[in-house]
């Protein structure tokens, strides 16, 4: 463990960081909480909680439409998050940063709005074998409506996408390639830059589902040259119910509105309605204002630590945790990609993941069990479910030791 601590990046003090997360200080069933479910949702530092509290207690008002002081303050705070999100993913313009409910809504927005206008019968859309349901089902709905074919990039036994097969799927009918930056079920980091370039060479657009990437690595949408990028606030230590869709302004301008209502219009009459400019054209109705402000605080927090340090530390945790749990007899890690984020998905021979999760919970260890909204991944590996420990920068090597000890206990219980 001391080896690991010594390789933690300079200036990275996990014990100091944990002080910011009151939730981590509790006991569960009499044992210290070990939270290993950050891929489902990350914990929130008190700075985020405080920003949301402050909004409700001091600045609460609706945004954009008020001339009074409170409305101006809340508008400024909310719009400030747009600027922070733009910088966070290095988008060129604020107009390219759309507030949504989360990655799911971001993908639905593109499938619905862009798909409605730009896809026709006979076209093809490509997703990959390791997608979250959020990046499968919206495209399937579009495919069913429009008579479009959904094609799937296969993966190998490590859970890595096979780029030669992807190349073969691309053709002049391909309109969109929608791929996860990082797989939530396997941890695979996909070579999205290369995959986007391949899509573009075939004349297709690319959407990257960054739900599991944005919390763990620096994202640069301009360097990636992606057409769309989606992420959720709650996985980046922000609140639930808010997320970001990035889209190139040329594309967003050409797309019809996703939802109609207040704020997304310029003028309304019964004869003709005209739409607002970007980004508001895609932001109908009162948004999650407190959530947006909380997201701004979360991005500040994560930036304050530094994504380069977060990536480096989490990688060390992954290496340590992989080694620790690999010692458990009968345990098989599902997802062994060479480029991998800090996700440990595994099965133990003869023991159902839900039983593993339940025994771990009794020891204060929170993991996720199930198909992780990635049923095709489970089918591919011929398992009904896995147990998934997903790590974040506030986890420690000692917690991974606790996981390994917990799994030994599971083995004893089910011996
Ligand atoms: N994509 C991936 C890879 C995910 O892991 C998730 C959530 O787990 C989503 C999309 C959906 O995110 P949300 O539920 O926040 O919309």
What does this protein structure show overall?
The strands form 5 sheets. The protein has a 7-stranded mixed beta sheet with strand order 4-10-9-8-7-5-6, with helices on both faces. It contains 15 helices and 17 strands. The chain has helices at 2-7, 14-18, 46-59, 69-89, 103-118, 137-146, 163-169, 192-201, 221-224, 249-254, 289-305, 307-326, 353-362, 375-380, 397-413, and strands at 27-28, 31-32, 34-35, 97-100, 124-128, 149-153, 174-180, 205-209, 228-232, 243-247, 265-268, 273-275, 331-333, 343-348, 365-366, 368-370, 386-390. Strand 8, helix 9 (221-224) and strand 9 (228-232) form a beta-alpha-beta unit. By secondary structure, it is of the alpha/beta class. The chain has 2 domains: 14-32 and 306-413, Aspartate Aminotransferase, domain 1 (Alpha-Beta Complex), CATH 3.90.1150.10; 49-304, 3-Layer(aba) Sandwich (Aspartate Aminotransferase, domain 2), CATH 3.40.640.10. Bound molecules: pyridoxal-5'-phosphate (PLP). The site of pyridoxal-5'-phosphate has 12 residues, from helix 5.
Q: List the strand order in the largest sheet.
A: 4-10-9-8-7-5-6
User: Might you state the CATH topology name of the largest domain?
Assistant: Aspartate Aminotransferase, domain 2
Residues in helices, as a percent range: 40-55%
Any idea what the shape is? globular
The percentage of residues in β strands lies in 15-25%
The total strand number stands at 17
Count of runs of 4 or more consecutive helical residues: 15
Quickly give the CATH architecture of the largest domain: 3-Layer(aba) Sandwich
Residue windows where pLDDT falls under 50 for at least 5 positions: none
Name of the top-level CATH class of the largest domain: Alpha Beta
- Supply Rg: 22 Å
Q: What's the number of domains?
A: 2
Q: Name the bound molecules.
A: pyridoxal-5'-phosphate
Q: How far is the N terminus from the C terminus?
A: 29 Å
The CATH H-level superfamily of the largest domain is Type I PLP-dependent aspartate aminotransferase-like (Major domain)
Q: What structural class do helix, strand and pairing data support?
A: alpha/beta
* Average pLDDT figure: 97
């Amino acid at each position: 463990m001391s080896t690991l601590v010594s390789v933690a990046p300079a200036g990275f003090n996990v014990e100091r960081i944990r002080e910011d997360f009151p939730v981590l200080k509790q006991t569960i069933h009499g044992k210290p909480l070990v939270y290993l479910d950050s891929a489902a949702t990350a914990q929130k530092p008190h700075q985020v909680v405080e920003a949301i509290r402050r909004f409700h207690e001091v600045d609460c008002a609706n945004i954009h439409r008020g001339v009074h002081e409170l409305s101006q303050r809340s508008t400024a705070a909310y719009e400030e998050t747009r600027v922070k999100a733009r910088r966070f993913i290095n988008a060129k313009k604020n107009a390219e940063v759309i507030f949504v409910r989360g990655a799911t809504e971001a993908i639905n927005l593109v499938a619905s709005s862009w798909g409605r206008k730009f896809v026709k019968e006979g076209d093809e859309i490509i997703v990959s074998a390791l997608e979250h349901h959020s990046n499968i089902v919206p495209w399937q709905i579009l495919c069913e409506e429009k008579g479009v074919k959904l094609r799937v990039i296969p993966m190998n036994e490590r859970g890595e996408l096979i780029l030669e097969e992807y190349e073969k799927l691309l053709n002049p009918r391909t309109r969109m390639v929608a791929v996860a930056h990082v797989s939530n079920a396997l941890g695979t980091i996909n070579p999205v830059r290369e995959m986007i370039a391949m899509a573009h060479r075939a004349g297709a657009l690319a959407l990257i589902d960054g739900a599991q990437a944005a919390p763990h690595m620096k994202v640069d949408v301009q360097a990636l040259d992606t057409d769309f990028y989606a992420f959720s606030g709650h996985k980046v230590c922000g609140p639930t119910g808010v997320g970001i869709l990035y889209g190139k302004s040329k594309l967003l301008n050409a797309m019809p509105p996703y939802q109609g209502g207040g704020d997304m219009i310029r003028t309304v009459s019964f004869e003709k309605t005209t739409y607002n400019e970007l980004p508001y054209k895609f932001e109908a109705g009162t948004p999650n204002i407190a959530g947006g402000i909380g997201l701004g605080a979360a991005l500040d927090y994560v930036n304050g630590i530094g994504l380069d340090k977060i990536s480096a530390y989490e990688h060390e945790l992954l290496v340590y945790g992989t080694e620790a749990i690999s010692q458990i007899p009968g345990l098989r890690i599902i997802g062994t990609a060479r480029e991998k984020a800090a996700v440990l998905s595994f099965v133990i021979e003869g023991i159902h993941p839900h039983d593993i999760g339940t025994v771990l919970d009794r020891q204060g260890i929170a993991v996720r069990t199930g198909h992780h909204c990635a049923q095709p991944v489970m089918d591919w590996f011929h398992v009904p479910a896995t147990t998934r420990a997903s790590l974040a920068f506030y986890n420690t090597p000692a917690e991974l030791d606790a996981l390994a000890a917990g799994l030994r206990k599971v083995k004893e219980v089910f011996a």
